[in-house]
Amino acid sequence: MKGGVDVDDMEPRGAPVGRRVVLGMVGLGAVGVAVGASVQDRVSRTLSPVGAPIQDVLPAAGGFRYYSVVDRVPRRDAASHRITVGGLVARPRSFGMADLAALPQTRLTRDFQCVTGWRVQDVAWAGVALPDLLDAVGVSSRAKAVRFESFDGAYTESLTLEQARRRDVLVATQMQGAPVTHDHGGPTRLLVAPMYGYKSLKWLGGIEVTDRVVPGYWERRGYDVDAWVGRSNGRDDAPT
């Protein structure tokens, strides 16, 4: 991040990233999966001219690369942080960390794959499965999609309602057995396990149920709206 750390959310300062650059990223990323960090470093250098604020791999980062679409993301304290959920729902509300903890908890372990090529294997996540959160607010029969907003003030993402109801899509509050850190998108972030990292929006602040898919930050700059890893069509096993 989509959307830093672990995600794919690099942002151009100034001119948007064009389709040719995006396709080049994807192509180089595929090579990066096969041959490792040296290619991933070349990908980063290739992207630098378009203004993406790409940061180096941080010490003890566990293989994650940290990106952000703004120069500085405000920090939110877990004690006061809230996620607003609204749109086409019966009971709009906001959820604090204690509210999320009171909902059913889902744990899963998945590889985290960035579209630019790097991957971190066997990342342990925990939080609220998005279907459980949607059930808590009551989704309208008119709903077709779900839109997500980062509290960085710039990054957005969307899923179809069918995708959002997968059990491997989480509002994640824990990562690798600890609270999600700020650099990893905490206090809460989205995890869309079967898709590339740019779908897993960091610094989650708002969820809106909508009547259509609203293309997100990177989709408006040429990325695929449906970002299944390996084009699996999302038919991989989901957690219970």
TrEMBL record:
PANTHER family: OXIDOREDUCTASE MOLYBDOPTERIN-BINDING DOMAIN-CONTAINING PROTEIN, PROTEIN-METHIONINE-SULFOXIDE REDUCTASE. Keywords: Membrane, Transmembrane, Transmembrane helix. It comes from the Bacteria. The chain crosses the membrane at residues 21-39. InterPro entries: OxRdtase_Mopterin-bd_dom, OxRdtase_Mopterin-bd_sf. Residues 73-218 form the Oxidoreductase molybdopterin-binding domain. This is Oxidoreductase molybdopterin-binding domain-containing protein. Signal peptide: none annotated.
